[in-house]
Design a protein that fits this description.
single chain, mainly alpha
């Protein structure tokens, strides 16, 4: 129970960091993102729909279809994570003016979203989107998990070309690169400290 409570706190903090990065830096600067949130952001740009509500609906559909291929603990944590991300996306939605420098925005968007994702991943949870779909393809068709997840995320980002243009897609790639590096560092920092203790 103590371990679950610690994981729950990490998920809350991680989900909040991630949602704030989306609503304060990514959306105001017309960037995209990968995964489920990336899909929600693109639908927000096209139809004006709430990213929080759309993210929750998409996550619920994906988790309902894919719950049989995930470990029980993972599916519980992922359901909690997806719900909290959607909630924080919804309650922090606001019309925020973009920063004057889009490159700085992309760097800090990647940094803060990466910290948030890393805190979530270190609990054994996932963001509840393309990683679940990739696991379904792996389970049913034997597709490589990492490559499938990469292709799915890349497809979402490339779809952004049609809605945010080439330049903002390039900024998106920068923020995703920084985000992946930071999430990896945040995720495995605990493992490194455990080995040294």
């Amino acid at each position: 129970m103590k371990h679950f409570l610690k994981d729950f706190i990490f998920i809350i903090i991680g989900a909040l960091f991630y949602a704030l990065a989306v609503n304060m830096l990514i959306i105001p600067n017309n960037f995209a993102d990968g995964g489920l949130t990336g899909m929600s952001i693109l639908l927000h740009y096209v139809f004006g729909w709430s990213t929080g509500i759309v993210n929750f609906i998409l996550a619920a559909i994906i988790l309902t279809v894919g719950f049989t291929v995930l470990p029980k603990r993972n599916i519980i944590l992922t359901a909690i994570t997806a719900t909290l991300i959607s909630l924080f996306l919804f309650i922090t939605e606001n019309n925020i003016e973009p920063l004057a420098d889009p490159l700085v925005s992309a760097i800090f968007a990647g940094f803060f979203s990466g910290i948030g994702a890393g805190l979530i991943f270190r609990t054994g949870s996932s963001m509840g989107g393309t990683s679940v779909i990739a696991r379904m393809f792996h389970h049913n068709l034997g597709w490589d998990l990492t490559r499938t997840n990469f292709v799915l995320d890349a497809a979402v980002v490339l779809a952004g070309l049609f809605f945010i243009g080439t330049l903002n897609t390039m900024y998106t790639i920068i923020l995703l690169f920084i985000g992946k590096k930071e999430s990896y560092r945040s995720c495995y920092r605990r493992a490194g400290s455990q080995k040294s203790s």
